[in-house]
Structures
1.
Amino acid sequence: MAVYRATARRRAAQARREREQRAQRAWEVARRAAALLKEQFGARRVVLYGSLARRDFFHSRSDIDLAIAGVAPRDFWRAWSALDIIGGSFEIDLIAIEDASPALRLQLEEGIEL
């Protein structure tokens, strides 16, 4: 039984390390995405929300959720496409703050400005 417990602890520690490394990579991608949105598409605000912003909820299949303000509607899909390229192994979900539902706007208030 002791061997089983030791193996379980090692596996849990390894999974925790991998999750932390993935979260760090996701943060790097989110920061690069915010810079791209501001520099190339004129975003005034970029807000990170969802599981990456709420660290305890981040898991191996988490994506990167970004909300933007100030990007012209005609440029939205080009911006989303550009994010798809830099996202690597991360899916990036993009929404316009102006189009967010009231419930999502409440969640965005707890988000992190990038």
2.
Amino acid sequence: MRVISGKFKSHSLKSVPHSNTRPTTDKVKEALFHFLGPYFDGGKALDLFAGSGNLGIEGLSRGMDHVTFVDKDSKAIKTIHENIKLLGIAEKCEVFRNDAFRALKAASNREKTFDYVFLDPPYGKISYSKLLHVLNDEKLLNNGAIVICEHAYDDKLNDLPQEFQEIKQDAYSKSISITILQYDLGGN
């Protein structure tokens, strides 16, 4: 696993050892960031179900200002810390070991808001609808925020809050799909 582009291009990243974590493939990551724009002019991201931190680190490499990484697995948290140290980017990162829903509540209590959210939970285990409702209800997203959902090919994102508009949906194999949503409070 490696960083594809930006400041840390070609740097290798550690994977979570002996884990059920399913890292985003380079092919999917490259297509995703090609759509989002090759580089960012700042912005704050939340990498929920972060695993190794692969997606958030790619965002930092391409110009995001700050990433909050969340995972409940202790091996994943250790790996994220190792990857952050390897690249010397600790000042641009926060790492939390927590359940996704508790982490969202904690972020709300700290009045955090995000411009980008990476959602890549274990397939079939977490409701995207519930996650998106919490992101909306807790006011964690800036207007115009982009939410990237990696999910099983045959999963459909249903019962989404009306503030989320689907702007792209692509399948990258018969097992992986990406749905990109934009958060709009009605002003855009």
3.
Amino acid sequence: MPYINANKVKDAAKCFTKLDLKPMDLFDSRFYPSHNESLSNTLMYFLVMVAMDHRISRPGRLYKAVVDGEEYKGADLLYRLGMKMYESNPHFFSPENLSKIGEEDVVSWLSVGDATPPDPKVRAILLKDLGSKIMRMFSGNPDEIIRICEGFLRKEDGLGLLDILRMFKAYSDPVEKKSMLLVKFLSYRGILNVADVKNIRVPVDNHLTRIALRLGLVTLEEYLEDKVRKEEEVSYDEDIIIRYSVREAYRYLSSYANLNAFHLDDFLWNFGRTTCLRDSPQCFRCFLRYICRAYETKMFLNEHNFYNTWYY
């Protein structure tokens, strides 16, 4: 089993206490609805877009295109196309429409230039499941999800937001990447005031996993580290075990450093895209290099190989 290196976590926490972490801008009109939009419309937008926020780029197949004269790639392009659709046809995001959506609708929506989604059939299934269940379980009113959870992520009656989200296929990840990302977005937008902040965790994706493994926050047993180093595909269970360990390591780090876990996630996500890069880490400008296992050993592990998933 992977284990969390408490000493490394504490060393990293000391480095992070020197930073002034700020939340991302969830009102950037290129990617997100304005503050004037209704709660229902904004909630549906984020439910849909986070449901789509997985594996949009693949090895050798970068999701990249120019939209309105500006180049976007990966998640930035995904959310840019989300807002383009929202501005032209907000009904697209309604539970009623989602319940009838098809693969061809996803291809039409998320394709621009040479960029096209790698798994449109899966994405259509996720959206149809989301729309159908909101129609059936909540009478087509997504606001009910927020009302029922009462601000709690987990409740003894099983009706916390994380509990409710689990009924949707798109949000069924045991490590709750998309669910935590949605919680972050909704809290930043003022739609959700989290009552049980102790249950907040970072939404673990490739960037956060890569950073944790390189720093040595999480140590893999020899056979698993060997698979990661050779870029062999891990199993379903191994993927969950690795990501869960990474999630808990960051929980301890945010606690030791007295950081908002979501602000930490914002920083790490950007850090993984600009500094701790997959193929060419920019160690010369990394404030963590002197406590980094990879920098010390010159063995730069990447995130584990598990691409056939909609969890993250």
4.
Amino acid sequence: MFLVDSHCHLDGLDYQSLHKDVDDVLAKAAVRDVKFCLAVATTLPGYRHMRELVGKRDNVVFSCGVHPLNQDEAYDVEELRLLAAEDDVVAMGETGLDYFYTPETKVRQQESFIHHIQIGRALKKPVIVHTRDARADTLAILREEKVTDCGGVLHCFTEDRETAGKLLDLGFYISFSGIVTFRNAEQLRDAARYVPLDRLLVETDSPYLAPVPHRGKENQPAMVRDVAEYMAVLKGITAEELAQATTDNFARLFHIDASRLSSIR
């Protein structure tokens, strides 16, 4: 089996008491057949720190972006453009809209979201989108900014079947995290059954949102296997089939050469 954690924050893990270093994290993941990761940035300084922390590896690629919750201060859009063009940066983000925590930065969030999509279109790199309490505006900006030119994924999906359908109509992929395993997530499980297998990704969003049976612990890339196994049951297929499909989808969306993945197997 070959699994990909399509969204993790490697710079956010506990290297003081739980892991010796990034090598340790990736080794624990590999034991559970999680052999490739997308390390996602949430600020530009954070992106630089993560590149320094992780280094250049065959089994890790990066995104570059500024999270909607990090819009309290302005950032240099041209710097974002230059960093996003670096080697092994395969996506823009994490970007999007979050009106739940910081509605007061709504306008700045929207401007930043648009910048990310525009750079993604110019660089032919997909966008990784976060949305919370901003469904209508998120969909409107994706349409208006012609996101189909670069593609993208709605990560850590927590919306309903109808929203999933609208995203699929835009050519989007949809990524499910450990939330799908939570007891009160029946609406999310309904959406997971609905999303076609060829548009599905799995992720941890580590260090957050550890899946059942690890609730309350730090999430880490190794735990994407728990998400994948749970999703396989929902889809009525084997874990191996789910792993193969989501790995193929990941490679297609983020333009990862098949030879790179096969060399790791």
